[in-house]
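By convention, the token line describes the chain's fold. To illustrate:
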Amino acid sequence: MSKSLSILAKSLGHAFREESLLQQAVTHRSFSAQHNERLEFLGDSVLNCVVARALYDKFPNLPEGTLSRLRANLVKQETLADIAVHLRLGEYLLLGEGELKSGGFRRPSILADAMESIIGAVFLDAGFEAARAMVLRLYEPAIEAIDPKASGKDAKTQLQEWLQAKRHPLPDYLLAATRGEAHDQIFVVSCQIPALGITTKGEGKSRRAAEQEAALAVLKQVGGLSE
């Protein structure tokens, strides 16, 4: 295993017996015919099962509909991409030249797919319990932070619904600045609603996270934040 992939494996907390599986998990289809899409298929199923069981155990009194909503929030692309950013997964991805030039190493869809592929790779390498243990380690902060009474909608969704209810135009999210090295950037995004004379800014380690912060700032201003 290359030195860089050894660092990734350490961050994941899993020592691969079959090192080629991790190599395949970080390989995008634009780079090689031996890419990660089949592993992604496996990882998606393992992830849904592990998260479903974790929620079932943590919230024994919640009905099926609420558990399904909580699971959907945890396994969606944005959540997976945020975990990938925390792991600096973009630094390890093998991408074709076109994807590299277009910033594919920070694209949420590519990061999320790679995370699912890694889960699939661990499952093939060491079985379900090893994959389950890794998923629970990665998801522990998100699961612990769950408030089942909350609406479950992120700030951007809440803002969109609030504006639509008031018959206002939807906001514009603009990248205002980036700071830091390419592998460890901070994104600054503005949320502009000209009809209300409101402009806010948010910061985050991904553009999506910065957009969420900016939307949250608007909701706090207009009193549209759901409990």
The beta strands are 172-179, 186-193, 198-204. The mean pLDDT is 89. DSSP finds ten helices and three strands in the chain.
